[in-house]
Sequence to fold (207 residues):
Amino acid sequence: MKALIIVDLQNDFCPGGALPVKEGNEIVKTINDLMNDFDLVVATQDWHPKDHLSFASNHGKNVGEIIQLDGLSQILWPDHCVQNTTGAEFVQNLQIDKICKVFQKGTDKNIDSYSGFFDNRHFNTTGLDSYLKEKNVDELFITGLATDYCVKFTALDAIGLGLKANLIIDACKGVELNVGDIDKAVQEMRSKGINIISSDDVLYKTR
Ligand code: VGL
Ligand code: ZN
Fold:
């Protein structure tokens, strides 16, 4: 069974949002098209409490600074995807009625969660792993934001769980805090066994 996953396609990660990904909104149409080709579609939603410790504002520090959070290296972000705010909502044109289940992450203020599966310490699960197992999913097609953070860590965890993982590269956009971050992330994913494909490979296969 194949499944499509949409990672963090939320207002705050799109132009005009709190942590905008360049052209983040431009992948929505491709993802809407892709959803029609899958029987199972899931999504992740970055869903932070206001006092989340990945927010620079909660430390009186600058965005982009790196701190140690309980022994883990943590980049400090602007306040983003705060629970029950417009910024945390899925982008308006996304066809959310096609999404079978949403997995929220980053809900524990003490730890960040880039992957849609586990927190950054691999301690708590969002439930995505057991859900996919229950549905007999053995192959995941990954889309969304941001290529160099949440998309990458979701893909790496998928491989770690023994799933076949495909990154639909034109259905993702990255933050690129440093020039070259997106390329580096894609290379890392490829080297760890993730298939890098394009939406055409999926959309036109059955036509
Ligand atoms: C993300 C930074 C902080 C992402 C989430 O969705 O890639 N990046 N929180
Ligand atoms: Zn976040």
Remarks:
- Residues 147-160 form the longest helix (14 residues).
- The mean pLDDT is 97.
- The two ends are 19 Å apart (CA to CA).
- The chain has five helices and eight strands.
